[in-house]
Amino acid sequence: MKLNFELSPLEIENNDVISQSTIIEKRKDWPIQFIKPNGFGYKEPLMPNSVEIKKFFLKISKETLLNGHRNFINRNRFHIDAIIQDRKTFTPNILLTDLDTSIKYSTEENDFHLSAENRAEICIDKEVGICTIVEPSNWGSFLVRAIPKAIEFKAHGINKIFIWANHPNQFEILKLIGYSRTEIHLHNPKINFRFSNGYLKSDPAPGLYLEPASRNLLQQFSLKYRTENNSKRIYVSRKSALGQRSGRVCINEEDVENLMTTIGFEIVYPEENTPEKIVELFSNAEIIVGCSGASMFNCVFCRPNTFVIDIESQPNWLWGHINLFSSLQLKFHIFFAEPIEKSGSPHRPFFVDTLELKKVLEKLC
Prior knowledge:
This protein is α/β, with parallel strands linked by helices. It contains nine helices and 22 strands.
């Protein structure tokens, strides 16, 4: 069955639009430094001076079928949880990370088809806020995309959510924002779902730029964990758990940790802390240093103007990380680390120049 991809869910006539708006926000005027030890670094992405964000809040049609991670099929059309402004660039990549969808894209024909596979189907009759996102298993994506949706649904009096969650920390952060386990309907992307009373909110972080209302919701959530003294200096290590399994390993992590300890930084292993402790650490930090990855997305809990040094070992997500830190109004710099292998997967080992990092930190501290 051939499917047409709609750039906007607002184009689906039987979706009930509750609100829609367009926000244009000027990017914070902070002089980012791209620090290139021994001349090594990547091309600096050209970032626009302002960001346009299209928002919506709607009630999904009962005829709509959720397939895969965030594909909403209505008759011969489908949409996602965002309004897309550039069809040519976005369309070929829309299903890139969704390995569970039945929708297939043909590059030769430049169109989509729904494969005729047999799937179980579940209809959820109760009122739910639908928190479907791209890459739900990634902690960073979960934090900036799913959590703001869940907080806003709670603010609207929608006390049950539909969401993908598997790791204990995902359930724990949901509990902290007010959702007990009985108020969570789990999303299985290998099953099709319909909703009799389902609400959908737009992606709060298109291009990883967190829109103002969602940013404020996360700030309000963080307030109860803050103290008057925000003098913590933390180094976010990748030495444990996922940081070692991903292949993107800092080969001289111990040297970096020794340097950070010497100049008064606390070493933090995110996977060994509860979400509550992580919120407390990041929301009370004065300076944060860390190698890019999901753990650095915990900066959503930082106060505005927190200093951040993001150590980047590859260019693939540089623009997205800049968007995130910029939207959070952080004072951040990019410090480049050199991969051991010059080509291949983005997830490859890298080396941090501790002498250059020390010089940067001495100026900052």
